[in-house]
Design brief:
The two termini are 29 Å apart. The strands form five sheets. Strands 6, 9, 10, 11, 12, 16, 17 and 18 form an eight-stranded mixed sheet that branches. This protein has a four-stranded antiparallel sheet with strand order 13-8-5-19. The chain contains 23 helices and 19 strands. The chain is α+β, with helices and mostly antiparallel strands. The longest helix is centred in the last third of the chain and has 18 residues, at 607-624. The protein binds a DNA duplex through residues 243, 245-246, 249-250, 252, 283, 331, 347-348, 387-390, 396, 399-400, 403-409, 413, 448, 542-543, 545, 635-636, 655. InterPro entries: p53-like_TF_DNA-bd_sf, T-box_assoc, T-box_DNA-bd, T-box_sf, TF_T-box, TF_T-box_CS. This is T-box domain-containing protein. Residues 22-84, 567-669 are annotated as: Disordered. Pfam families: T-box, T-box_assoc.
Length: 679
DNA sequence: CTTTTCACAGTCGCGCGGATGGGA
DNA sequence: TCCCATCCGCGCGACTGTGAAAAG
């Protein structure tokens, strides 16, 4: 197959044979078994933070509920169970945990989160035993919510895409598995039944890439970081919804990745594929999403979006953030004839985006002689339900709060900068509403995009104060239920399945590693994510100049002082970026490694924070009313005055920051990334 | 009744063209 | 005076969610 053929039309003709898994495999892997394995994994996770040894079964999360997971054991029918390959294939893609014991040795993937959608593996160097000492990365694996549903017709992309060769199940083809047939015979679990051709979270393949076998031509250990993961998590907790229109609607949050571990000179095609996440048709009822019948598996249309810069060298891809901000979703099956690539989806179906990295020739042609050059990455938090109109007002509000294009719907937008300084949450040193800096020093400059994508956390304060423990909530909790949720949150937090290294546990408080800490100052510091060298000045995304974070990260040295000064509760407060500085440096800089934001530490929030909390409750109260009333009352709900402004002030103040400025010292804000990695 | 489509108002970025300033 | 580079303002198009109407 020539991947170039899909550019720009995205029309791909790929052999489907790789997905032609036998139904017997499916039968052999019942959802039930998956479930069991999953539970076992969870227990293990909660039990130990130091000896994550039980991730053998690939089954895991993916299969949870949906049963389309496959067990690690079966993944390696060829007796390679436990091999790095196995672990990869299973672990990553499926999320499942499909990391074999051996994998633990070589691959080191620790499931550190118990929240289905927010599981992380803290990976470390490949050296055995170094995991604890060198926790260098966090990468989510496909959680239970991330299971990918295979079309019953046996060909997920029968309509427009036959990319089997490009996207071998689980990226499996990647170096990890020398033979795709291994997977086929290996027996993926297809909980969906006979028709399911796709194992859950093939994405795992990503790691696969990293776990390539010795001597493998595709030995590149690719690591993919979800740059704006915090934002995705915000939406994910309420079940992300994505509008689809005939003309095509951009995703928000959009997919944005950082890639490392590629061969600098090799050429790659990078593209996103959106596949059904489950076999259900969904509807928003009673303030929450419920399944309603079976999904239409026969939906035709393009499901892939090739990054416009493809093909390009590994150096190119790694030099900058790979954003898919211009990716559009549509429900128009006839779309895609124009210049813009659009992914055709079906309303009220749940989808899972996946990132594929395919090594190609300089001309963009895939080397068919080597199947181990495809790597696939899946982030469960990227799941979303396609809708033609927003259903959950929480999602709507999040969109308005974070999407620069929706600024016009922020009621308090005009008053954001007219409020008295004392009322302002924005600690801008200047009175200029359009100041480029949110704090003295260019290092704190932030761009709108960046702020929105990475820094903004106000919504949580306002609406989801206690939802940290409610990963999949629809945010319709009543005040009472929210209290219950709070209690549950504590319990849940206590059982968070984070595998932490000694460093991570310095705080002696596991709660620090809870759900949102991955992008909080304290939480991030613990992980010691390695920084990525970013010097690019190029950004594919025009409207969303993904920047600013770098400069911000560059200023962590003084950040701590700043944070204390302006209160940590500020929604836009720059969070420390572990990658930017090694923990030691942060300490030297005077930044408390574990200082937490109010909502995280439970410390008394600032006055403004209190206001937010109250607002939150009041809002929740409204929200919690019966579904019938709910939708009406929540229409165009607004947050407390100044809330948005605070949240967005950075964007406005920094909107003029140039991309170059950002890139020059952009550490890539790794602290905000979730990533798949290969040991 | 649910879902989809459409027009709308608002914001934003980009590109074009004119104005301005400096140098030859 | 001419040429060139830079700056600024305006208009256009892209993009957003809203809300009503249409469609199923």
């Amino acid at each position: 197959m020539q991947l170039e053929n899909i550019l720009p039309s995205s029309s791909i003709n790929l052999p489907k044979t790789f997905y032609n898994l036998s139904s017997s495999d499916s039968a052999n892997n019942s959802p039930g078994s998956s479930q069991i394995e999953y539970q076992e994994v969870e227990r293990t996770e909660s039990e130990s933070t130091t000896a994550p040894k039980k991730y053998l079964s690939g089954a895991g999360m993916m299969g949870d509920g949906e049963g389309d997971s496959f067990s690690g054991t079966k993944t390696a029918p060829d007796g390679r169970k436990g091999s790095p390959v196995l672990g990869v294939g299973v672990g990553v893609g499926v999320g499942v945990g499909g990391v074999g014991e051996d994998d633990l040795t070589s691959g080191r993937r620790y499931n550190i989160d118990d929240l289905g959608s927010d599981r992380y593996f803290i990976s470390s160097s490949s050296q055995a035993g170094s995991d604890m000492a060198n926790p260098c990365s966090l990468f989510p694996y496909a959680g239970q919510t991330g299971s990918v549903y295979g079309a019953s017709n046996g060909s997920r992309y029968s309509a427009s895409l036959h990319y089997g060769s490009v996207l071998p199940p689980a990226g499996f083809s990647s170096s990890v598995c020398s033979s795709r047939s291994q997977f086929a015979s290996g027996g993926y679990q297809f909980g969906q039944g006979p028709g399911c051709l796709y194992p859950s979270y093939p994405a795992t393949g990503s790691s696969i890439g990293s776990m390539s076998l010795p001597g493998s031509a595709a030995g590149a250990r690719a690591q993919v970081y979800l740059c704006n993961r915090p934002l995705w998590l915000k939406f994910h907790r309420h079940q992300t919804e994505m509008i689809i229109t005939k003309q095509g609607r951009r995703m928000f949050p959009f997919l944005s990745f950082n890639i490392t571990g590629l061969n600098l000179t090799a050429h790659y095609n990078v593209f996103v594929e959106v596949i059904l996440a489950d076999p259900n048709h969904w509807r928003f009822q009673g303030g929450k999403w419920v399944t309603c019948g079976k999904a239409d598996n026969n939906m035709q249309g393009n499901k892939m979006y090739v990054h416009p810069e493809s093909p390009n060298t590994g150096a190119h891809w790694m030099r900058q953030e790979i954003s898919f901000g211009k990716l559009k979703l549509t429900n128009n099956k006839g779309a895609n004839n124009n210049n813009t690539q659009m992914i055709v989806l079906q309303s009220l179906h749940k989808y899972q985006p996946r990132l594929h990295i395919v090594e190609v020739t300089e001309e963009g042609v895939e080397d068919m002689s080597n199947e181990a050059k495809t790597q696939t990455f899946t982030f469960p938090e990227n799941q979303f339900i396609a809708v033609t109109a927003y259903q959950n007002t929480d999602i709507t509000q999040l969109k308005i709060d974070h999407n620069p294009f929706a600024k016009g719907f922020r009621d308090n937008y005009d008053s954001m900068y007219t409020a008295p300084e004392s009322d302002r949450l924005t600690p801008s040193p200047t009175d200029s509403p359009r100041s480029h800096q949110i704090v003295p020093g260019a290092r704190y400059a932030m761009q709108p995009f960046f702020q929105d994508q990475f820094v903004n956390q106000l919504p949580q304060n306002r609406f989801y104060a206690s939802e940290r423990a409610v990963p999949q909530t629809n945010s319709l909790l009543s005040p009472q239920s929210e209290d219950a949720a709070n209690a549950a949150a504590a319990a849940a937090a206590a059982t968070q399945r984070w595998f932490v290294t000694p460093v991570q546990q310095t705080g002696s408080n596991k709660l620090d590693l809870s759900y949102e800490n991955d992008y909080s100052a304290g939480g991030l510091l613990s992980y010691g994510i390695k920084p990525l060298p970013l010097q690019t000045s190029h950004h594919a995304l025009g409207y969303y100049p993904d920047s600013a974070f770098a400069s911000m990260a560059a200023g962590w040295g003084t950040r701590s002082t700043y944070q204390r000064k302006v209160t940590t509760g500020l929604p836009w407060s720059p969070r420390p970026s572990p990658p930017a500085f090694p923990p030691e440096e942060q300490l030297q800089a005077g930044a408390p490694p574990k200082d937490k934001l109010p909502e995280e530490s439970g410390a008394p929030p600032s006055a403004s924070s209190s206001n937010w909390i109250e607002t939150s409750h009041s809002l929740k109260s409204v929200d919690s009313t019966d579904s019938g009333v709910y939708s009406m009352v929540c229409k165009r709900r607004r947050m407390s005055p100044g809330g948005s402004s605070t949240e967005n002030s950075p964007s406005i103040k920094c909107e003029d920051l140039t991309t170059d400025e950002y890139n020059k010292d952009n550490p890539k804000g790794m602290g905000y990334y979730a990533f798949y990695t290969s040991p």
